[in-house]
Write a structure and sequence with these properties.
The chain has about 325 residues and is of the alpha/beta class. The protein folds into 2 domains: about 200 residues, inorganic pyrophosphatase (n-terminal core); about 120 residues, Roll (Diaminopimelate Epimerase, Chain A, domain 1), CATH 3.10.310. About 40% of the residues lie in helices and about 20% in strands. The strands form 2 sheets. Strands 3-2-1-4-5-6 form a 6-stranded parallel sheet, sandwiched between helices. The protein has a 6-stranded mixed sheet with strand order 7-8-9-10-12-11. Helix 2 packs antiparallel against helix 6, helix 5 packs across helix 6 and helix 6 crosses helix 8. The radius of gyration is 20 Å and the shape is globular. The chain starts with 6 loop residues before the first helix and ends with a helix. The mean pLDDT is about 95.
Length: about 325
């Protein structure tokens, strides 16, 4: 694997570049991708962002969002861009399976692959890597890449700053997760100095939901929340009928698991959603409880210690019972 610093020479001349990120992109995925896009186009590169799937409407205000290609909508164009790219930046994921069908074409492309990510256990498909699990967001690493590796802070204009601030804000839980270090606060302060309007960004991301989404949240808390006080755990179960009744769209379930975690004394919260193809899980925890271990061991997933996800091909009722059966195994950790 080549040193990431050697990209400075490669990027000195215009290149054909593709930026991609994981399926169902969140704020960090889109913020880091468009932040890097807005940086590279200033340097004269030909750049496209390709997402494997659609993403929430509350992220579609980001600068240059209209330039994003959604693979499932424009497969032929996306595959051509990937095949002809000289560099492919892979942001906020470290295994090609995380970009679904697009992963096959990225893997086959002769382009040099650059991974910028903060998740555990990189797969190893990349030629260049800027990676650490200690970063609170991939957007933080993109900032570090621009400022410290490329030595080009002067390219962080308002558009770049806005995107990177959004990525850091969302993946740090609005700066409340343990990975929000003093360094992170220095970075976001610099992004504000570069033009990011912090209050406006917060409003566009968090105060931009539909009425049906708010009613859906109420339904989840009143009718779908279970609390297991003996295990300091909570569970929200969402059926496909719930999704249809409240006309749930991409992004509407994001953050709901955190309401279960906000209950006093809760150390582990789970959100289980019955999707058309499989059952999806999101786990959140506090302290040193390993949410990622549960997802990896039982639910084909993984992630960070306090924020992880997975899936199951079983019926939703069976998945819920499996989660409940797992809790006694972790009782010692949960009641500390």
């Amino acid at each position: 694997m080549s040193e990431i610093a050697s990209l400075k020479e490669l990027l000195a001349q215009p290149k054909q570049i593709v930026i991609t990120t994981h399926h169902k992109p969140d704020g960090d995925a889109m913020g880091s991708s468009l932040g890097l896009y807005n940086y590279l186009v200033q340097k004269g590169h030909h750049v496209r962002v390709i997402t494997p799937t659609d993403y929430p409407t509350f992220l579609q205000w980001l600068p240059n969002n209209p330039e994003v290609l959604i693979y499932t909508d424009k497969k032929t164009e996306s595959e051509s861009l990937v095949a002809n790219a000289e560099l492919i930046f892979c942001l906020d994921f470290n295994a090609l399976s995380r970009i679904n069908e697009l992963g096959k074409y990225v893997g086959e492309s002769k382009a040099l692959k650059v991974m910028i990510d903060h998740h555990l256990e990189p797969e190893g498909f990349d030629d260049y890597r800027h990676w650490t699990i200690n970063a609170c967001a991939t957007a933080q690493l993109v900032y570090d890449f621009i400022v410290n590796i490329m030595d080009e802070r002067h390219f962080i204009n308002k558009d770049v700053a806005t995107c990177l601030y959004t990525g850091i804000m969302t993946d740090s839980g609005s700066f409340r997760f343990p990975t929000t270090t003093a360094e992170v606060h220095h970075i976001v302060a610099d992004l504000i100095n570069c033009g990011a309007e912090n209050s406006r960004i917060h409003q566009l991301v968090y105060d931009n939901f539909s009425e049906s989404r708010l009613r859906f949240l109420g339904h989840c808390l009143i009718n779908r929340l279970e609390v297991f006080t003996e295990y300091n755990s909570a569970l929200i179960t969402v059926t496909k009928d719930d999704l249809q009744k409240f006309q749930i769209t991409t992004g509407d379930t994001e953050g709901i698991v955190n309401y279960a975690l906000s209950i006093n004394g809760i150390r582990l919260a789970a959100l289980v959603i019955e999707r058309p193809d499989r059952v999806k899980l999101s786990l959140r925890s506090t302290g040193d409880f390993p949410a990622n271990e549960i997802c990896k061991k039982y639910f084909n997933g993984g992630g960070h210690r306090n924020a992880a996800g997975g899936f199951s091909d079983k019926k939703i009722e069976a998945v819920v019972e499996e989660i409940k059966s797992i809790l006694p195994e972790y009782k010692t950790l949960l009641i500390q």
